Amino acid sequence: MSAHLRLCLLALAVTALCAACQSQGPTKEEIEAAKSTLDCDHAGDRILIRFGDGEARMLMTDGTRVILYQVSVAAGMRYTNGMIDLRGRGMDLELSRDRQTVRMTCKQYELPPPKKD
Predict the structure, then answer these.
(1) How far is the CA of 73 from the CAs of 83, 89, 96, in angstroms?
(2) Which of 60, 55, 52 minimizes the C-alpha distance to 34?
(3) Half-sphere exposure of 61 (CA within 13 A, CB side)
(4) What is the pLDDT of residues 48-83, one digit of tens each?
(5) Residues 42 and 7 placed together within one structural domain of the fold
(6) CB of 99 within 8 A of CB of 37?
(7) Rounded distance, CA 58 to CA 48, Å?
(8) Least CB-packed of 2, 42, 52, 111 within 10 Å?
(9) What CATH number does the domain containing 89 carry?
(10) Is this structure's pTM higher than 0.90?
(11) Residues 54 and 4 placed together within one structural domain of the fold
(12) SS3 for 22?
């Protein structure tokens, strides 16, 4: 068997294995991560925010990842990195950047349903 044919068969096997894994639905880790993630509408743009261990990790619409660090406040929550500020309580959040504050509409993140073959 030629090296090229073996490589093609290996690639086919890996592809089939990946497809089988994808059809089983979300992993336990993905389900746990979704529980601490919010899906927010920021002036028509979608932003995902995952909270954990004193920080909020944001995935911006353009794919940029931003980490904000928790700051003590009297009520509610506040996360900042000095340039971006996230404040609020529950699902009522405001994001401030470049001296502009935008109120966001947030909901609990929902994992996409498994693909059906």
Answers:
(1) 18, 11, 16
(2) 52
(3) 7
(4) 999 999 999 999 999 999 999 999 999 999 999 999
(5) no
(6) no
(7) 6
(8) 2
(9) 2.40.128
(10) no
(11) no
(12) helix
